[in-house]
Structure formats: structure tokens, C-alpha cells
Amino acid sequence: MKKKVAVVGGVAGGMSCAARIKRLDRDVEVVVFERGPDVSFANCGMPYYIGGVIRSRAAMAVQTPAGLSARYGLDIRTRHEVAAVDTAAKTVRVRALGSGEEFEEAYDALVLATGAEPLRLPVPGADLSHVHALNNLSDMDRIAEAAANAKTACIIGGGFIGLELAENLHARGLKITIVELMDQVLAPMDKEMTAPLLQELEIYGVDTRLGDSATAIEPGAVTLKSGARVDADLVCMCAGVKPRSALAAAAGIETGPRGHIVVDGRMRTSAPDVYAVGDAVQSRCTVSGEPVAIPLAGPANRQGRIAADVICGRDSEYIGIQGSSIVKVFDVAAGQTGLTEKRLKALGLPYRRAYLHPSQHAGYYPGAYPVDIKLLFSPEGKIYGVQATGAEGVDVVVDTIATAMRGGLTVYDLEELELAYSPQWGAAKHGVNMTGFVAANILRGDMDVVEPDAIPGDAFLLDVRKPEEAALGMIPGATVIPVDELSGRLDELPRDRAIAAYCGVGLRAYIACRLLTQAGFAAANINGGFTTWRAFNPPPAGQS
Questions:
Q1: Catalytic positions
Q2: 238-290: per-residue pLDDT in tens?
Q3: How far are the Cα atoms of 5, 94, 141, 252, 269 from residue 274, in angstroms, in the given order?
Q4: Per residue, what are the HEC states of 413-466?
Q5: Rounded to whole angstroms, how far apart are CA atoms 25 and 231?
Q6: Distance CA 182, CA 189 (A)
Q7: pLDDT tens, residue by residue, 444-458
Q8: Cα–Cα distance, 162 to 47 (Å, whole number)
């Protein structure tokens, strides 16, 4: 008798699982129930179809139900909603959305890939026809159609989807307002690392309202808690997502504190022969070991593969998630992996941090741009996480350090990585190596640092840049002595005060501090230089 697997939901997790089961064992019967019309589509590409970057609507459907059925022998039933699960009888009750017919389907193994859905804020007017959320291809089509007839758009939420929609609706000529409840965009990152994103939004004329929220929506406008009123022919709800776990909870399957389905390393739920994958589940953070839920396509795919392996008798295990992600905001990218500083504080873990701003390739080769990097690490050198922003090279930094973290490498190992170099790519001292150098210098005591958001009030501030650089912006109260003049001007410095030195990004100040400490001064480098200090102390909007 053939083994039968029922999969509830398609896209990344569900279809990865279903297809792999058939690749591993063609004799297994696999039926996929999907309440929408599509089981495999490029959900991460939807904002770019709306913006016209992706022009082919057909390209958004990665695989069709007919194509998947022909290739793998899957029984795919779109527009079929699973209404209930009976884990004792090992059956699901299914409703055909077209006809309304209901029937029961038995299973030997069940995979829940129900995903997540956008939060609909309880705001008066949220149900109006010009208010949209982006979750599937039908939503994408509606937003694209609405954008064609709109001049203004209000995006509620400044996370990944909100930022991508802002860029793409701007590309269609709409005037954009982003309303974000927090005091920063892209909440998963630390605030100072999002400063370049705010600057980029300002450059492109996007009105970003931080620390504010929508209180009412009406045709053509959104009223904010601050009392402001912004024009909005189109409103997009991008305030986050919640797991679609009601089906599991109703079946008595264990869920976590935020409603996510609890699974073990083999993607098994608390019910026998029931598995769960994708955005609806919580899994283990590979860095802290705590349970987390991070909705990302890559982990959902891997979880689907693990569940398929286990169902087919293989001893596979999902080791967890570290949250590697990247987003594009006009001409700037922001990426991260691992733990942020605010998460480390919440967990009470001791940590150090290193800021640096190397170019993405050799500075003498045309087109060199800085990559702003923040590395978080333990006092012993364990890498906790990294965040980076920049025009190019962000993916290289994040992906390389994410790989190092999975391999258990330390900051000292980053110093020794042998990375590909040509002037067009990287540098002889690659930015990843430089990250290791700076972190290791801090831990070895070769460089004392002063944190840019905690400079002692009695410190003597020393700017070691050239006067023309300092004239463009400096820390108030600093004394300017260029690093190349420093050895001949030591008598201008106090020996009874701690010196906090800085340059643009930290390198010249490091050289200055080495000179000063060897001359008997108490000197420390301001971590990340003026660039990082400015991220903590941004000028008013409209000023550079």
C-alpha cells in the first residue's frame, strides 16, 4: 500500500517538501491543497513587478500546477482550503472553494505549510477599497492596477516590504509617505545602521514619518496620531505579518507565545506524523539557541527539504536559523545575519562591537564605495552577528560572515580568510579581513576604543583629519591636529586627560592612538570614526 502525504499550502516550504518527496520516492502519493490559484510564485519579486522592474507577469509564476504535476506526479489541488485536521483519525477536511463541496482526505503524514499573512491594523477605514496588503499574486495585481491611477501613496510600516514598495511605487511616479511606529526604519537592524537608509529615502523625496502611526484612513488621505494628514490615493499595509496557525491550534497542535507552530529539529509538531515548515513555524536561533520565528524564503525551502527527508526515512535535521537577510532601498543595500545589539542586550549576553567603513573594492579602481559594517562579538571572539549597508558589496560581507558563523569561526579567523582579490572585487585587505583585524585589535588590547554613543564628557576630543575635512563636519569641541603632524605637536595635548581620537572611519585614528600610547598618553579610538558618530547624531532633515 502506497504511503500518502498531504501538504497544506504551497510556495517555498510546501512545494519544496512535496517535490523533494517525489524525487526521493516516486511511489509516495503526495497531494497538495492550496487555497489560492498559485502554488509556486516569486513572492519576493512582487514589489519589483509592481514597479515595472520585472515586466513579465508570467515570470512571476515560477512553476504552474500543471507543470509540477507533469514533472513530479504530484496531485495539486488549487482553490482547495483545508478547514480542519483530525490528528487521531489522520484526516483533513477540505473545502473546494469553487463549488463549496467538502470532503475528507486521509493521510499517513501531514505537512502544514500555511505560511503567514499581513497584519491588518484596526484602523477606521482599513477596509476601504484603496487599502491593500501584499501577500500573493492577486494582491500584486490589485496594487499594480491601483498604482496606475494614483498620484500619492501612504505605506504603513517601514520594514522590508514597506521599503521595497516605497522604491517601486516611487519608480511609477507616485509621491510616497512612509509611516513607521518605531523611531527607525527596518526594525530588525540596530538604529544607527539604518541611518544611510533614511538618507537615501530623503534623497529620493520619500516623506518618512518615524514614531507615528495611522489613526484613520479615508479616500485620498491618512490621518496620523501626531495630527498630521498625508495624501494617499493608495494605502499599503506593511506593518508586519502573523503566522497562519489557526488550523494547527484548532487541531490541538502546540503553538508558541506568538502563535507559531512549535517543531523540533526534524520539523515534527506535537502531533504524530504531522510536520510544519515555513513562515508559520518557530525554530531555534543558531546563535543564541532561543526559539525564534523569522519569515524568510531560504529557511522555508530548507525546512521543506528536511521534512521531506524525514518523511522518506532519512535522518536529516534542521539546525536552526540565524536570520540572514538583505534589502535594497533605491541605491543602497542593507543586510544582516545573526544577533543585533538590541537582542544581545535583551538576552544579557556580554559583547563587544566593531564599526568600520572599508570600500567594496580597491579604492584606486573606479567606482569604489564604502560599506558600513557593524560586527558584534563576544569577549572571547565568537561572532554574534554583522550588519552592513552600502551601494555595493553588502551581500559579500554578510554572506561571508554568515558562512563563518555557521562554521564556528571567530573574529581571529576572519583575519586569516583567504578571499578572492582583483581591483574590481575586494581589496588585498578585504573588508571582511579588515572586520577581523579591527575586532581582534580590540580584544588583544592593541586598540582601546571609545564608543561613539558613550564618549566621556571629560575626554579631550582629537580630530586627526585634515582641516578641510573637519570643516565639513566634526564632533563639537574637538581639536584638529592631522595625524601626519601629530608627532611634532604632542606638546599641544594634555597628559592629565583621556584622549578620544577620531578620523573619518577609524584607520588614521588607530595610527594616532598607537603613536600616542607609546608616547605615554591615555588615548582611545572612537569606534568607527566620525562616520559612525554621525549615524548616532544625524543632522536635521535636509542638512548634510
A1: 44
A2: 999 999 999 999 999 999 999 999 999 999 999 999 999 999 999 999 999 99
A3: 10, 17, 34, 12, 6
A4: HHHHCCCCCECCEECCCCHHHHHHHHHHHHHHCCCCEECCCCCCCCCEEEECCC
A5: 56
A6: 12
A7: 999 999 999 999 999
A8: 9
